[in-house]
Structure formats: structure tokens, C-alpha cells
Specification:
With 17 residues, the protein is mainly α. It contains one helix and no strands. The N and C termini lie far apart (23 Å).
Length: 17
Amino acid sequence: MASSTFQGIQRYRPLGQ
């Protein structure tokens, strides 16, 4: 589950920025 949420967040709001 965490993987799915983490990917969704990175796609919408990348941590790189």
C-alpha cells in the first residue's frame, strides 16, 4: 500500500522539487 501511495504522490508532487 505504501508503495502505491508513494508513487501517486511522487507523480503528483515529486520529492525532487
